[in-house]
Structures are given as structure tokens and as C-alpha cells.
């Protein structure tokens, strides 16, 4: 095995913390001696041991002296006191010879200071091993820690001809099981999931994460006039799954009924005829909600793009053609007035999902005037 193989092992370990460490980053670490991994660890939950200390705990449990070994860690070790003490001190105390780092930590409390501390203690440091993969693993954390705003992903499923439903309105299922399982991993990864009231009225979804031992994200429904039915799946399960209804004008009687059902009601001023999404993102950031997955419908998707809150688009495309003149498309709204004014994606990737195709990319930040 070479350096990249060991860092990949650390990456694989880091993903075990998906959905449970927010708003902290996912981090994995492996300890290597004589070309073999002797211990590994990952950040399991927010507030728990960091990956490096988790790996050292495994060494202690196995009775392994890791002095003189190398460590591979996906993110620059912390050098400050938070919910856990500095990992840099633990690395020095355990006699690690060389540390290989994937991503630099953009957190101002770390940001190069962790690597500098290790070097000051005579520990070798190599940075940027599988940097691109390590950076992508924590794209949510990187935005949140530098801006205080959630990382926003717009997700939708469509046919080859761009339809999200048949002319009858029937939409289950467009994609296959593999793609749908992939969506549930994204629900696990994100702290919150957001949908418009139109989607609730049309599909009556649950918007939960159906992964064994997973975690349900906060459900947010943009419902300007509080039209959500009290017998909808969202409201009926609000006592078990965190649920926020975001409205623009509060009907006191309806709001009280929703609160009694377990929903949180947030009233925000309207923006462009609907929820002020920029104000909502600011509020979520203040609540330490680091990520939002937008799942339906077309009006909300356009509004999110138009107010520039979307960081990433994930388009699941099925090899089907519905045809017809139905208005069921993933992004509605006014639309672009010319191809030159379209929203553009960059850093795009294409992934095959057992017949379906996932196209994802970052929304290019540029003026569309």
C-alpha cells in the first residue's frame, strides 16, 4: 500500500460519522507501521473523541505502542481546546513520527496552526494527500465554518425528457432502488431537508431517512399561508421527527394546532412572493444547521437558485421518457430568458446508479444580469 491507499482508508473510516457529527467535520485517521495499518479511528458523534484520539484509544485497547509510527488523517489536526482537547498534543505525546494530512482546516482556530505545531515538535508533516477527495468529503463543513451559512444542495429526480411526473401527476417511482438509497444517504448527510407546500399537498411525503441506524434530518416546509393539512404525514409524525413550518403570515389558530402536533412555526417576511430564503439560511446558520437538502418542488427550486443560496445540484436522471405537455419539471419559476443567462454548473461528475444516472456539480457563482 502507498500513501494514497492509507489516506483512502482514512477517508473510508471518516464516512462512518456521516450524519452524526454536524456541524463538525467528518474525519478519519489511520496509524501505520512497516507498511501496515495498526489502528484506525473516526469522529463518531458531535462532542465525542476526534479521529486521532479515537485511533490512539484503539491502540491502547490493543496494547499497541504506536511510538515511531506514521499517522494519516483526512483533516489537519486541531490545536485548540473545544469539546475535546487538541489532537496535536496527543499526536506528540504518542510519539508519532510523521503525519500525512489530506485537507487543511479552514477553521480560523486551526488553519495551518495544527501543522505548524507538529513541525515545531520535530514531527514530519506532509500535506495535500488525496486533497481533492478529502476536501469534497467536508464541503459542508468548509462552507459553514467560513461563512456561518448552511451548505445547500438542490436535489431532484427526472426522466430523460426532463419530467418529474406523468401528465396524471403520478411520480412514483421515477428512479430505481439504487438511486433512491443514494438519496437517503444524502438525507443522512444533511442536517435539514426542505420542501415546498406544493410537494406536500401533491405527494404527502414523510421526508425521513430510511437507513438502518440512521438519523432523520430536520424537516422544513416552506408554507407561506399555512396550508399544510393537519392530517398530512409531515404533521402526524412531527412529535417523532423534528419539523419546522416556515410561513409568511401566521394564522394563530392553525399555528397553535400545528404547534400542538409538535411542529415548530417560524414566521419570516416574504421574498419574491414566497419565503425569504436568504433570511431563512441566516437563521438556520445561527441555529448551527450546517446543511440543507432541497427536495421539491419546482417553484422552490427556482426561488433557491434565483436568490443564490444553492451550492450544489444533484440531478438523478432515469432512462425513461414520459412525454406530454405536462408542467411537471424539476425547476419552475420564470426561467432564464436566454441560454447565456442560465445557471451554470462546474466541477461536474456523472455516476451510474444501476441504470439511472446522477449528474452533480457546483453552481457557478457569477452575475446573471
TrEMBL record:
CDD domains: Riboflavin_deaminase-reductase. It catalyses: 2,5-diamino-6-hydroxy-4-(5-phosphoribosylamino)-pyrimidine + H2O + H(+) = 5-amino-6-(5-phospho-D-ribosylamino)uracil + NH4(+); 5-amino-6-(5-phospho-D-ribitylamino)uracil + NADP(+) = 5-amino-6-(5-phospho-D-ribosylamino)uracil + NADPH + H(+). InterPro entries: CMP_dCMP_dom, Cytidine_deaminase-like, DHFR-like_dom_sf, Eubact_RibD, RibD_C, RibDG_C, Riboflavin_Biosynth_HTPR. Its EC number is 3.5.4.26, 1.1.1.193. The active site is at residue 52. Its cofactor is Zn(2+). Substrate binds at residues 171, 187, 203, 207, 210, 295. Residues 1-117 form the CMP/dCMP-type deaminase domain. One of its GO terms (molecular function) is 5-amino-6-(5-phosphoribosylamino)uracil reductase activity. The keyword Ribonucleoprotein does not apply. Converts 2,5-diamino-6-(ribosylamino)-4(3h)-pyrimidinone 5'-phosphate into 5-amino-6-(ribosylamino)-2,4(1h,3h)-pyrimidinedione 5'-phosphate. In the C-terminal section; belongs to the HTP reductase family. In the N-terminal section; belongs to the cytidine and deoxycytidylate deaminase family. This is Riboflavin biosynthesis protein RibD.
Amino acid at each position: 500500500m502507498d500513501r494514497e491507499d492509507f489516506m483512502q482508508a482514512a477517508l473510508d473510516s471518516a464516512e462512518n460519522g456521516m450524519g452524526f457529527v454536524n456541524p463538525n467535520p467528518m474525519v478519519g485517521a489511520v496509524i501505520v507501521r512497516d507498511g501496515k495499518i495498526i489502528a484506525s479511528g473516526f469522529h463518531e458523534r458531535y462532542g465525542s473523541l476526534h479521529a486521532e484520539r479515537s485511533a490512539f484509544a484503539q491502540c491502547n485497547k490493543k496494547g499497541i505502542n504506536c511510538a515511531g509510527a506514521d499517522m494519516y488523517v483526512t483533516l489537519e489536526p486541531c490545536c485548540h481546546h473545544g469539546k475535546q482537547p487538541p489532537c496535536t498534543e496527543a499526536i506528540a505525546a504518542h510519539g508519532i513520527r510523521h503525519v500525512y494530512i489530506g485537507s487543511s482546516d479552514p477553521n480560523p482556530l486551526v488553519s495551518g496552526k495544527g501543522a505548524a505545531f507538529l513541525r515545531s515538535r520535530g514531527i514530519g508533516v506532509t500535506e495535500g494527500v488525496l486533497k481533492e477527495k478529502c476536501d469534497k468529503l467536508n464541503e459542508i463543513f468548509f462552507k459553514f465554518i467560513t461563512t456561518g451559512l448552511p451548505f445547500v444542495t438542490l436535489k431532484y429526480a427526472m426522466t430523460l425528457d426532463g419530467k418529474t411526473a406523468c401528465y396524471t401527476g403520478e411520480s412514483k417511482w421515477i428512479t430505481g432502488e439504487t438511486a433512491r438509497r443514494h438519496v437517503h444517504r444524502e438525507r443522512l448527510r444533511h442536517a435539514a431537508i426542505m420542501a415546498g407546500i406544493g410537494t406536500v399537498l401533491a405527494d404527502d411525503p414523510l421526508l425521513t431517512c430510511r437507513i438502518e441506524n440512521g438519523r432523520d434530518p430536520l424537516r422544513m416546509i416552506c408554507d407561506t399561508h399555512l396550508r399544510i393539512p393537519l392530517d398530512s404525514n409531515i404533521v402526524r409524525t412531527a412529535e417523532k421527527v423534528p419539523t419546522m413550518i416556515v410561513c409568511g403570515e401566521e394564522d394563530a389558530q392553525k399555528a397553535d394546532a400545528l404547534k400542538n402536533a409538535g411542529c415548530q412555526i417560524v414566521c419570516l417576511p416574504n421574498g419574491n412572493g414566497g419565503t425569504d430564503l436568504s433570511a431563512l439560511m441566516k437563521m438556520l446558520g445561527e441555529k448551527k444547521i450546517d446543511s440543507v437538502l432541497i427536495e421539491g418542488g419546482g417553484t422552490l427550486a427556482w426561488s433557491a437558485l434565483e436568490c443564490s443560496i444553492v451550492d450544489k445540484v444533484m440531478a438523478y436522471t432515469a432512462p425513461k421518457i414520459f412525454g406530454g405537455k405536462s408542467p411537471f419539471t424539476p425547476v419552475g419559476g420564470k426561467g432564464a430568458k436566454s441560454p447565456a443567462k442560465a445557471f451554470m454548473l462546474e466541477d461536474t461528475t456523472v455516476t451510474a446508479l444501476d441504470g439511472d444516472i446522477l449528474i452533480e456539480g457546483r453552481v457557478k457563482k457569477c452575475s446573471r444580469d
